[in-house]
Amino acid sequence: MDLGTSVELMWGLGLAEDEATLLQSLAGDEYQLRNWPLSALPNPADMQGESPVLAWISADAWDGLPAKHRTALQEWDAPLRILILDEKATDLCYEDVAEQGFLTTIRCPLRREAVQDVLFRAREIRTMYTDVISMTKEILLERELLARKTDQLQFLNRILTRASESLDPRTIMNRAREDMDMLFPVQAVQALFWRETAAGPEAELYLSPGLSAESRRHWCAYLLEQAAPIIGREVRSYTIVPLETRSQGQEGDIGGPQPAAVVAMPLRTGLTPFGLLALSSKEPVSLARDQVQTITAAVQHLALALKNALLYREVQTMADFDGLTRIHNRQSFDRRLREELARHKRYQQPISLLMLDLDHFKRINDSFGHEAGDMVLRELGRILSESMRETDIAARYGGEEFVVILPHTDESNAHTLAQRLRAAISGKIFHFHGQTFQVTVSIGISSIDAASVDLDTNLVREADQALYLAKRNGRNMVCRQADEDSLQAAGN
């Protein structure tokens, strides 16, 4: 408080009436004195109700105070206390004065210079006290800010470390959900990544597991809508990738997006955006400024890790997948078949192989052109991908030939699947430059039962022989090696 611009309260304790009047006069108009007579000294409630800046106490009143009153005054931190000594009283040493809780003593008769000196010293002490309090608050604030900065660095280090440990976008996002939960209650982390193609931007939507069809539709619309201004145009082609690996605390159907409860942030490397990250909560999200800064920094780290994971997957895809059909290529098929056969020998489980060949594929190229042929191959790859279980492996074997590895599948079930594939492909109507056409496939099946230890060359060779049988017998059919044996037996 500024002593020069307001009237401040002083107390007198046990002062004679003439002493109180004189003290008020010597102190000036900047102060107002309230004197408490010896017969009515303030109680603790009075001390709590008012905050005087100074308390002038006569020595007689001090000596006559009951012990509990004296203790209460000594423990009262609000005012600075001044002890008024009688004219003939013995001087007290500073240690005695300070020990009893007084700032100083002043001797009667009261003089203006002495009173003003006490008031000046009181101002100085109060100013120093205010400065110390202010410095203490600043130090505490700096300590709090430093602690928060330390927590922020630890959080960002955790985000960066855990994100850098994986090259799987789903794993990175699941870990991000766990880590972001330290800042605010994150229910799910979902994302949209896009890449430019000749036909326009294509996107992948990584969605929370367990979404209902309606929730999935709403999230797709929300993510596409949020991404459009960043991309600069709408995304019309996209695929959905479920985040199948659930992190701890991840719920099933989280419902559709509630804009107030979603923090959506662009993902960039440098100045180039490539995705959008959506952090959703159960309740509306209200973030402090430092939380926004921390999340922004964390998302920058995540963007780098996710971009590296996407690039790694792209390189891996180029090595293991066919560029046209987007299913496994021959090299990847050979490796995966060896792995599955090794697993078959170890666990004694059945395994089957389908070999498919498009019938009269050359006619399509000759009649409609290679662009139409490529369209057919792409569509066949899509049908195979969508018809397979997660454990099945579809691959382009070469040209218009495709193969499908069916682990844990005996010949009977493989035959059922093959017939379903044949029907799906033959029922597909292709549209190309105003013309329509259909295609058929021939499929050969080979199988190894649970007790067999045949080599992979036998499995492929027998499927190829069964395929040849389907071609020879009129195409658009499914044949097994056993069918060849039956025909030979009938011929004999």
TrEMBL record:
<dbReference type="InterPro" id="IPR050469">
    <property type="entry name" value="Diguanylate_Cyclase"/>
</dbReference>
<dbReference type="Pfam" id="PF00990">
    <property type="entry name" value="GGDEF"/>
</dbReference>
<dbReference type="InterPro" id="IPR003018">
    <property type="entry name" value="GAF"/>
</dbReference>
<dbReference type="InterPro" id="IPR029016">
    <property type="entry name" value="GAF-like_dom_sf"/>
</dbReference>
<dbReference type="InterPro" id="IPR000160">
    <property type="entry name" value="GGDEF_dom"/>
</dbReference>
<feature type="domain" description="GGDEF">
    <location>
        <begin position="349"/>
        <end position="483"/>
    </location>
</feature>
<dbReference type="GO" id="GO:0052621">
    <property type="term" value="F:diguanylate cyclase activity"/>
</dbReference>
<protein>
    <recommendedName>
        <fullName>diguanylate cyclase</fullName>
        <ecNumber>2.7.7.65</ecNumber>
    </recommendedName>
</protein>
<dbReference type="InterPro" id="IPR043128">
    <property type="entry name" value="Rev_trsase/Diguanyl_cyclase"/>
</dbReference>
<dbReference type="InterPro" id="IPR029787">
    <property type="entry name" value="Nucleotide_cyclase"/>
</dbReference>
